[in-house]
Amino acid sequence: MPSLTFVMPHWLYWSGLILFPLAAMYLAKRQDESEKDPTKPSLSIAYMLLICGGFVGLHRFYLRAWKVTPVLIGLFIAVLLGNIEVKEIRVTASNAKNDILGAAFDIENYQKAVSENKEGAQQKLQEAQTRLENVKASSADLEEQLVFWDRFSGIAGLLILLILLMDAYLLKGMRDRCEAYETKIGFKVREVHNPRDFEPEDPTIHVHTPVTDTIDKISGVAGNFVAYWSIIAVYVYYYEVIARYVFNSPTNWAHEGMFLMFGMQYLLSGAYALREDAHVRVDVLYLYLSDRNKVKVDLVTSVFFYLFSTALMVSGFIFAMDAASVLEVSFTEWAIQYWPVKFSIALGGLLLLLQGTAKVIKDVALLTRKEA
């Protein structure tokens, strides 16, 4: 199988973190407004499955067209087996090359020793020459095996590609037959309800003021935006697994890129989690307090919140400015820029500070209301 040499460009990584959530939010809104029955098989989903998992027949499973699926799975297993053999042979061949270099080095030294009439040098020279010939013969055999297994995987991969090209042409017909069959048997997707799995402990969760509603909306937009980054991770790690185990070409950017992305997601979604009362709270006593006493406790402990969030915002801003001034990059082969990552610390602190202020306003509003 051919090797994959794609390295994620820095501009594509950063623009993807901005443009992908925007596109995903638009598609989600469009899906919500669509009058199409979501329980019917979708042609767009079928094509997505063909592109991402067609090599094992996921699109055919989705459209109830299973006849060719065992062939695809068998060919994919053949690709994996061939690549495993190729990987092992390459390791053995690398060791053989080192043995050839070592034997050649020994021969050169023993030839000098023979010319100097040293005792036993001739015998050692013959042993080194014999060892070199044996290693060369073994290396030549390994090269033949490497060509065979590489060609074996390539042919299996080519057959998979041909089947997928044929399926891409026939996909609409498969979708129509699947829809007709499901209509005939009365197939329905079971509705899944997703109620909140816990009741919020914060008594101000339903308090609204013009200022707090604006801040809540900002936190909601930030949280929803970075939530779509998780979908990016699915595609990136999918690519990493395929590149590593199918093409023997592990990446030097997937793990680092997702590690940094999830760090930024954690920071920028903190305000949204605070809005939804989703942060961890030590509630051994808090849970049994009245609403008024809960609000009083929140107001007292808000002092520590402000110290933390202010320190996070200020230190993050300093880190970001220092990183931008020297154009700091990571100490890896990918060498991604660090200043946007550190700027997310300051931005996350700012969002958290705003949401905490909204929480304090709600606490005061609830505490001063007569019905409280």
Give a quick rundown of the structure:
Helices cover 73% and strands 0% of the residues. With 372 residues, the chain is mostly helical.
Q: What does this 3D model show about the protein?
A:
This protein has 372 residues and is mainly α. It has 2 domains: 40-185; 210-368, no CATH class. The chain has 11 helices and no strands. Helix 4 runs antiparallel to helix 5 (121-185), helix 8 (254-268) packs parallel to helix 11 and helix 10 (291-325) packs antiparallel against helix 11 (339-368). The protein is flat, with a radius of gyration of 31 Å. The model has no long low-confidence stretch (mean pLDDT 88).
Reading the helices and strands in chain order gives HHHHHHHHHHH
Number-wise, the strands total: 0
**Quick one: biggest sheet?**
none
Strand-residue proportion: under 5%
Estimate percent helicity: over 70%
Average predicted local confidence, pLDDT: 88
How many structural domains can be distinguished in the coordinates?
2
Uncertain spans, ≥5 residues at pLDDT below 50? none
Q: Report the radius of gyration as a whole number of Å.
A: 31 Å
Structural class: mainly alpha
Distance between the termini: 70 Å
Give keywords.
2 domains; 372 residues
